[in-house]
Amino acid sequence: MSAFVTLSTGQKMPLVGLGTWKSAPGQVKQAVLAALDCGYRHIDCAAAYANEQEVGQALAIRVGPGKAVRREEVFITSKLWNTKHEPQDVEEACRTSLAHLGLSYLDLYLMHWPMAFQRGKEPMPRRDDGSICYSDTHYRDTWAAMESLVDNGLVKAIGLSNFNARQTDDIINMARHKPAVNQVECHPYLSQADLLSHCRSLAVCVTAYSPLGSGDRPWASPGEPSVLQDPGLAAVAKRYQKTPAQLILRWNIQRGVVCIPKSVTPSRIQQNLQVFDFSLTEDDMKLIETVNRNERFIVPTVERDGKRVWRDAEHPHFPFNDQ
């Protein structure tokens, strides 16, 4: 199997990239250097991760004229944050990411969520009671502004993140530049089979974030199920003499899903790329599908009336109220 997927734009996007969400300051630079040194050619970033300047420091050391890696060999993604959905804010937000990363263009720029927050400097604008200040800017208007980034050569392709099937259709139906990618949470406990087949029918590539279940997510509660410790998956991995993480990544890339596992540990970063030297049988692919529980781990929750509830569920564009 090729190590790339070809996007609707014709670009080749490596099937495994390094995720940088939750990579702490002081760690992410070394993680990016380790990834580039062991053969990664795809780095996934976002303004909201607040570490793009450090990613940029690593890129400056390894990528560019006279360096180990040519710029055109590396696929770099960033994302537009929710407070920058006003059409007049989109280009400045993109230029800020480019400046932090030390780049003249991005290979892919995603709308991080379909939900707009109140514009301004504060990434999580809150009222006195702690609730988020939303904006009613429609993601279609934001998309139209993102299309200009392609026209102006700031980005090669644009795409979506955390969009459901209906919202993806909404964009496809009005787009001049079609979304090349929809990046969503996807792992064996949330196999996304319906969304995946819907996106395939539209020539939209799916990228899996938290492909290993994001065990270090800040709001995880003790006793929650862990994909990496699933006994069924561990048994399959053992048969292939691979780690559960390698098995899970292989399962997704065999479905044509791009994976961006996050790690700051050089040995793990390397292991996560060692998924092209084996193939899963059709039976094992089906077996892994059966552990699906439609279980979302990456939805920020808040305490209300003594219960944990989804934080943004009342936003008019909250994506997870339907498929």
How does this structure look, described?
The chain is of the alpha/beta class. The chain is built from 10 helices and 12 strands. Helix 3 (87-101) crosses helix 4 (139-151). The two termini are 30 Å apart.
Summarize the structure.
Substrate binds at residue 112. This protein is α/β, with parallel strands linked by helices and 323 residues long. It contains ten helices and twelve strands.
SSE arrangement:
Layout (H helix, E strand, L loop, with lengths): L3 E3 L5 E3 L3 E2 L8 H10 L4 E3 L7 H11 L12 E6 L6 H15 L6 E4 L27 H13 L6 E4 L3 H8 L8 E5 L7 H9 L3 E5 L21 H9 L4 H11 L3 E2 L6 H8 L8 H8 L11 E4 L2 E4 L13
Parallel strand pairs: 3-4, 4-5, 5-6, 6-7, 7-8, 8-9, 9-10
Antiparallel strand pairs: 1-2, 11-12
Helix pairs in contact: 1-2, 2-3, 3-4, 7-8
